[in-house]
Amino acid sequence: MWQSIYRQLERAFPDFQVESWWGMADPFSRVVGSILVQNTNWSNVVKALERMDAAGILFPEKLLLLSAEELQEIIRPAGFQRAKSACLLQISRWIVQKGGMEVIRKSNESGEQLRRQLLAMKGIGEETADTILAYALDRPSISGDAYTRRLWLRLTGESCTYGQIRMAIQAEIEELQDLQRLHGLIVEHGKEFCKKRQPQCGKCLFSEKCRSASIPI
After folding, report:
1. Measured between alpha carbons, how far is 36 from 30 in angstroms, rounded to an integer?
2. How many angstroms separate the CA atoms of 123 and 107, rounded?
3. CA-CA distances (angstroms) from residue 84 to 8, 10, 73, 184?
4. Of 129, 135, 45, 36, which is closest to residue 85 (Cα–Cα)?
5. What are phi and psi of 95, to 5 degrees?
6. pLDDT tens-digit profile of 71-129?
């Protein structure tokens, strides 16, 4: 079923590009963005990233030269700066200890091995870990986030957990680039049509199949 959903979303958003969606190509910047976006909106993340870029610390080695207090001040626009600065310092140490981003990206460690290591870090939950795996570490993974679960619930009437929907999608779609693109398309669809409140059902490409458009999650 996810292959069908993917094809329909492709038709709805033919110009969608993962690179422009993220607004950045650098893998470490995506790691940072994945952490900073927790409990805030992307516009605040952009402000924090711009401050980090201006300070020359969008590199794990450079970031580690800062104290927690110095980093907190720089990322203040993203909010929750104490927790996020601690998480950024922790994952930067992990990246440096493993030899750097490119070494990790090209290593033989599986996505599940890296996922366990990421989840062991305080401040990194499943959604953040899967986002880092897919968009920064080149491993086949997809987030079973609120957008994805909402779409599935409204199409089928069936609720599912984060892990259940993640595994179901990955069992059907194996290619990393397809998983990246599918997740981006689901998020775009959720923002434009399949909204939590006041969904735009009349404009939705799934309107004829949607069983429960009014159910929020």
Report:
1. 10
2. 24
3. 37, 34, 11, 24
4. 36
5. -65, -45
6. 999 999 999 999 999 999 999 999 999 999 999 999 999 999 999 999 999 999 999 99
What's the token pair of residue 132?
């880092």
20-29, 39-48, 88-97: least confidently modelled range:
20-29
Residue 206: CB atoms within 10 A of its CB come to 19
C-alpha pair distances (Å), 204 with each of 12, 150, 151, 180, 215:
9, 14, 11, 22, 15
Q: Which two tokens stand for residue 62?
A: 């450079």
| Residues recorded for the chain | 217
Residue 124 CA to residue 91 CA, distance in Å, equals: 9
Query: What are φ and ψ of residue 67, in 5° steps?
Result: -80, 165
B/e letters for 118-131, b = 16+ CB within 10 Å, e = fewer, are: beebebbebbbbbb
Residue 187: other Cβ atoms inside 10 A: 18
